[in-house]
Amino acid sequence: MRVALLSKEFPPEIYGGAGIHVQCMAAALAPLVDLEVHCFGTERPTDPSMEVFAYQPWERLEGDAPLLGALRAMSVDLCMAAALEGVDVVHSHTWYANWAGYLAHILYDVPHVVTVHSLEPLRPWKAEQLGAGYRLSSLCERMGVEGANAIVAVSNAVARDISACYPLADPSRITVIPNAVDPEEFRPDPRTDVLERYGIDTGRPNVVFFGRVTRQKGIGHLLNAFRDLDPGIQLVLRAGAADTAELSREVAEGVHRLNEERGGVIWIKESLERDELAQLLSHATVVCVPSVYEPSGMVNMEAMACEAPVVASAVGGIPEIVVDGVTGLLVHFEPRSASDSEPADPVAYAHDLAAALNRVIGDPALAEKLGQAGRRRVVEQFSWTAVGRRTVELYRSLLA
């Protein structure tokens, strides 16, 4: 069976959870199928286990206008689609590649599988990043999802959201296959060289945030919550480039104000290797995931695998990973409306985040108990080997 994975991200160019998912999925599928990966960017190193093809956007689409980002993605999709003749199954990830899968299905009459990591209608802040291109990203996603032969949702919450956002998508085509994590790659690490490199005081409690600087991840609400924590507590942000220059300035100003008021905020802007991230998570007193929208949230699994207790918002697929009071604490979240994921009461939400963080930090026995239970849950419930097998079974059912 010849399978083509379609993705914007693939190593070494990865910036988010969907890219990590595709990387791990490819490794799980490679022993089971004849695999090729089609991605955005520069030529990739040779991989003996699979073929990897990379594509650049059309040169005539250069410029700074936000909407050009969506047009560039669509130009890559056209190049991808032209290269997919002869495959048995195409499997696209995120709106960036959904249109390529949709076109391949039409052109070559092959099954198209879409994995939904998030949904554009539930991410209205993307309009800040893409401008009018947000209409194109939404179009690419809608065409891909509604025209797919099979839709993989990474959580039950996502499955419900798919039906709500795209009622024309056949519910019988939706299958839930959760994200996973490699518990050998993410495991407790006693070393401290990464912490020392960034000036993290191992003798003080620390709250770790790991994620993109986007409104979806709720970093601004965490900065507000940090004011209600003891001044002796450190806040470690592993957060890279922001969606927009405006958001970058907003977060930078928030970090600056906090450091002037109380200090203890450490912002790691560069990417970390997985072993470095595992060390950071292993030494976290608590990992905070304050997302306002989160279809799954792989960072929860990664933190739990490293025996870090988690405080997370009770949104999307997070409650399917973090068991409240068992592997972490969930913070109640009420959005402004069905179409606006920001908290209805931002002050109350920040206060509730702080209360949960203070509870875990102030009770080392509870933190240890939550961390140990978290790793057990990851090992028992979330395996890439199982995800790979279930995905191949789905491919076979489409070819039967």
Distance between the termini: 12 Å
CATH class of the largest domain, named: Alpha Beta
- Count every beta strand, where a strand is a DSSP E run of 2 or more residues: 15
Report the structural category: alpha/beta
Instruction: Find the CATH superfamily of the largest domain.
Output: Glycogen Phosphorylase B
Tell me the helix content. 40-55%
Task: Tag the structure with descriptive keywords.
400 residues, alpha/beta, Rossmann fold, 2 domains, seven-stranded parallel beta sheet, six-stranded parallel beta sheet, 14 helices, 17% strand
Provide structural commentary.
- The protein is α/β, with parallel strands linked by helices and 400 residues long.
- It folds into 2 domains: 196 residues, Rossmann fold (3-Layer(aba) Sandwich); 189 residues, 3-Layer(aba) Sandwich (Rossmann fold).
- 42% of the residues lie in helices and 17% in strands.
- It has a 7-stranded parallel β-sheet with strand order 3-2-1-4-5-6-7, with helices on both faces.
- It is globular.
List the helices and strands and how they pair.
Blueprint: E1 2-7, H1 17-29, E2 34-40, E3 51-55, H2 68-82, E4 89-93, H3 95-108, E5 112-116, H4 126-130, H5 133-146, E6 150-153, H6 156-165, E7 174-176, H7 193-197, E8 206-210, H8 219-226, E9 234-238, H9 245-261, E10 265-268, H10 274-282, E11 286-289, H11 298-305, E12 310-313, E13 328-331, E14 335-337, E15 340-343, H12 346-361, H13 364-381, H14 384-399
Parallel strand pairs: 1-2, 1-4, 2-3, 4-5, 5-6, 6-7, 8-9, 8-11, 9-10, 11-12, 12-13
Antiparallel strand pairs: 14-15
Helix pairs in contact: 1-14, 2-3, 2-5, 3-5, 8-9, 8-12, 11-13
